[in-house]
Amino acid sequence: MQIGSAFSRRRLLLSSGAALLGGTAAAAGIGLTPSGAEGPFYPYGDLKPPDHDWDLVNYAGHSNTVGEVIYIEGRVLSAGGRPIANAAVEIWQANAEGNYNHPDDYRADEFQGFGGVTTQTDGRYRFRTIMPGAYGIALFRRTPHIHFKVRSKGHSEFITQMYFTGEALNQQDSQFRGVGDASAKARVQTTLKPAENMERGARAGKFDLIIET
């Protein structure tokens, strides 16, 4: 895949984001997690890696994953605060160099890039992954982010993007800027803190997903 082609797909991602973020103003008033763009690199069908569990760092059959290990955990909740059990939560992201594990992008290592879990009875989920890199150039530069997709019985499919508090590129990122007011932006960010009790050198963040019933 040539760089120019991959970059054009990323431009499509940026331009399509505004339409998918249109519902965030309503969400801001009731505390829902604002939605976000799926983008061009979701691994449909056979594009999902054979190993796509909760641990994106330990990729079966590969040993070259590089980057800062982070843990992301939280709960999937209804608008009324009820835990949603047995919800399918998927994440996908760029590696530390800003490349996706997808045939429409170009790669530099063997990072799994995609994972999925099912929530527990209290709505809880957890992932072990790495800090994603930024990518793009000039006006199309994207801040580090992780895509989320949630499917559960009785709820519509929900897609969003999670950002990292304090990232220098957040305010340049067109999709982050389009989320809404400060309250809405706070609900799509996580603050990473040292997590030496979980793994040496790792950080961890909390990210609850509050979706419409």
Tell me the layout of helices and strands.
Layout: H1 3-20, H2 24-30, E1 69-78, E2 88-93, E3 114-118, E4 124-130, E5 145-151, E6 158-164, H3 174-177, H4 182-186, E7 189-190, E8 193-194, E9 203-206, E10 209-211
Parallel strand pairs: 1-9, 1-10, 6-7
Antiparallel strand pairs: 1-4, 2-3, 2-5, 5-6, 8-9
The largest sheet is: 5 strands, mixed
Q: From the alpha-carbon coordinates, what is the Rg to the nearest angstrom?
A: 16 Å
Q: Which spans have pLDDT < 50 for at least 5 consecutive residues? A: 1-9, 11-29
Helices and strands, in order, run as: HHEEEEEEHHEEEE
- Number of helical segments with 4 or more residues: 4
CATH homologous superfamily placement: Aromatic compound dioxygenase
CATH architecture: Sandwich
CATH topology-level fold name: Protocatechuate 3,4-Dioxygenase, subunit A
Q: What global shape is seen? A: globular
Portion of residues in beta strands equals 15-25%
- Helix share bin: 10-25%
- Total beta strand runs: 10
Termini, distance in Å? 41 Å
Average of per-residue pLDDT values: 86
CATH class: Mainly Beta
